[in-house]
Every structure is written in structure tokens, then in C-alpha cells.
Amino acid sequence: MMTGETADGLISPGDGQPAMDQDCYQTTSRWLARSGPSPREARLAMALDAALRRPARVLELGAGFGGFAVAAAQLGHSVVAVERSPARADFAKGQAGGAHGFGSGSIVVRQASFFDVDLDGTFDAVVCWNSFGCWPAAFDVPLLRRIRHWLGAGGFGLIDVFDPDWWSGMDRWKTTRDGMREHIRWRSGPDRIEIAYEFPGPAGQGAAEVVRCVSRNDARRLADSADLVCRSGPTDRRRGTYLLTVAPAR
Ligand SMILES: C[S@@+](CC[C@H](N)C(=O)[O-])C[C@H]1O[C@@H](n2cnc3c(N)ncnc32)[C@H](O)[C@@H]1O
Description:
Oligomer: single chain
Distance between the termini: 31 Å
Strand order of the largest sheet: 5-4-3-6-7-13-12
Number of helices: 8
Largest sheet: 7 strands, mixed
Bound molecules: S-adenosylmethionine
CATH architecture: 3-Layer(aba) Sandwich
Structural class: alpha/beta
């Protein structure tokens, strides 16, 4: 794993994310891209809006197609959305400049890795939905330190974390989503979900990704190492994630 220091003086773990996962985010774009916020993204934006209570600067890590960013901007927030996959970032840029009305809100999309992107200023909230664990475990603390660095006074981070207790019961689960077949395999030690996608069309076309699960105790240890305090919410019974709220320890 290559390491280095970015202009903001933070350690970057380098470009060591598995190529398989990166390819997967590119290739699944064709099936998953959708304009505007999903009901879940709209709910997340409303919950964040209630916690912020005023128009704020929001940083979204792993923004995907930009649906959450659209929902948050429509509520008046200024969103910086960082997304590594060029296909997803391009789609999100289209949404940022397109037909959605934002009023006083705004979206800036950065096609970059959140492990080495340089960003100006600080944020009132940093959010990372449905992504924590899409990288090797050694990257967790460097990312949490970055989140700490990006938070302004009184700021907080909201992170979806995959709960190993929930996902361990999902081995061999199959489902179909937007025309793609998904097949889940559970592996323990380190706890992770392997997701194989099969695309419509000729048999054998597909992609795969691996997502790590993190227990509440491990999440607390990781937050401690990054000088963050944290609290975790209940596990969402349909998605198998719990919300980790983090804030600078001092
Ligand atoms: C599982 S998807 C979640 C997308 C979106 N947040 C959602 O909730 O639907 C993970 C996203 O994180 C992006 N991602 C993964 N590693 C990244 C990195 N190092 N920097 C920026 N984006 C990254 C992927 O390209 C992908 O769009």
C-alpha cells in the first residue's frame, strides 16, 4: 500500500483500493443510475436537515449518482459531493447542473478519491452513506482522521456502518434489483459481505464487490484512534446498517 501526505498535511493511505470494487462501481452504474433522490436519500436529507437546523456546508463522501446531494441542496444546503467513479461522478454533475431547483442550496461534485482529495474549508456535517468498509481495514482510521480534519466547530459526521450481526444471517441471499441479480456471500474473520452482480443479457456478464462489516465495539475503537467521540444508533432492519455519529473529541 502506498502512503503519502496530501497538501492539507493529512496522511493518505494511497491508491490501494481493490480494482475489482472500483470496476464494480463503474459497471453497475448503467443499471443503478437514477435521476433525483430515492425515498431513502430524501429521508436521510430530511434527518440531516433537522439535525443541522440551518443552511449548512455538507460534505458527502462516496456520493454515487448524487441523489442525496440533490435532496440536501433542495433543502438549502451547500453540498460538496466527492465520488471516485467517473461514470457516477459525471451523472452526479449532470444532476448538479440540471433541472433540479436548489434555491439557495448548491452542489459541487468532485471526481476524486476521498483518501487523497484536497478540500477548501471545513464543513458542518460530513456524511458517508452505504460506503464504509468498501476499502481495506487499514484505511478506516486515516479516513476517520480526514473526517475529523474536515469538521468545523460544532460539526459532526454521519456514517452508515454494515452490522456484522445482521449480515451474518444473509449468506446465500439472492435478490433482483433494477434488472441486476445480486448474490450475497457472508465471510467471517474479517467479517465481510461479498456481492456478485449478474447483468441482464448474455450469461456470465457481471461484477463483484466486497464490503467489510464493523461491529459497534470496533467502530468505537476506530473513532478513538482518530480522536473522535461516537455514538451508534439501532440497526436498520431492512438494510443491515447502523448510523454512527462522530464528532471531534476536543
Ligand atoms: C456502495 S456505493 C454507495 C453510493 C451512495 N453513497 C449510496 O448510498 O447509494 C459506494 C460509493 O462510494 C464510491 N467510492 C468508493 N471508494 C471511494 C473513494 N475512495 N473516493 C470516493 N468515492 C469512493 C463508489 O464509487 C460508490 O459510488
